[in-house]
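[job 4417] fold queue: 2 targets
>>> target A
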Amino acid sequence: TPEQAARMKKLQEQEKRQKVEFRKRMEQEVSQFIQATGEPRRRFQPMNKIERSILHDVAEVAGLTSFSFGDDEDSRYVMVFKKEFAPSDEELEAYRRGEEWDPARAEERRRLRELAAQQEEAELECGPAPPGPPNDYKDKYRHLIGSDAAKAAARTMEANKAYGC
């Protein structure tokens, strides 16, 4: 019916106006962020998919780096970074896990990884590991066979004379 079509057109125009207004608001916020000297990154409130895509576009036009974080649709948010403070892979991983980025903790993790790599390198320099299995199968089955079951069986074993030599 013509009434439904008119109502639909009115809703679409209203939606378009809201998107334009949202884009203007995001452009103002991004502009303020760029001018804020002591702010390397800014986290925006959770928003829906369309709003996030508009914000990503505004950030890209402004020459900024932006990422979305959060698991479900209701809690996904956008973080915008200035190019000179682009996040490292470790920083991005922390945000993806829902953690706050802590450079001191990241440095500690990096040092621990370096130390583990050095230890591994030192072990490799000592030469290859002796051949053979890494553990003794008897240890694995000790609860079934006991510790001296095999020795007792060997002591009581007698040669089968039926086979003869």
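>>> target B
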Amino acid sequence: PQHVVLYPLVSKSLRNIAAGKDPLEGQRHCCSIAQLHEHYSLGYPDLDELQKNPQPLIFDIEVLKVEAPGSYQQDPWAMTDEEKLQAVPLIHKEGNELYREGKVLEAASKYYDAIACLKNLQMKEQPGSPDWIELDQKITPLLLNYCQCKLQCEEYYEVLDHCSSILNKYEDNVKAYFKRGKAHAAVWNVAEARADFAKVLALDPSLHHNVSKELRSLETRLREKEAEDKIRFKNIFSQ
């Protein structure tokens, strides 16, 4: 038996990892003892009880599987800075392959992991510094790929948020305007969609066919919606 005072915090982090969450979720930067006093509850009754009444613990460790060296891909939070930089191109490639196979949700998860690696590194740099900008320029294409997945998953408001964030920094990003235009059209922000598609044409006239296709689709949906509304209102007033 081993008396482990700080085990409840460790256990909470492990449970977060198992649930796919940030292992440090809810923790602020301070010493471990301060963490104990900071949290009234860890969110698990058994850990709260153990935190109030520390006692010797016996750990049973079961080996689930053995993986060959190099076959295991660490989660971003567990990587060193150098490992994060090396992992990003590989994760990006895996995301692209999953997307081509039609596995959109899995691809989005890969892009998210790659973005998380770069964001973690970027947080250590001065905003606007050359290193910060270099990392941001690596994040942008990954974020656009992530938005493409979210468009297919019909999560349009997330696409609007991310694309607007990109355009606040890079106002000539054609892909961000195009994806944001599609998201605006999907949620019936007609004026905003037309404005974004117009911006796409102004920046890259060669995309005329793509933009025309999106605008035709929007106009068709508008006519269908107007017809449905007329029928609906007619039925309401005829009652």
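[job 4417] complete. Note on B: Residues 208-238 form the longest helix (31 residues).
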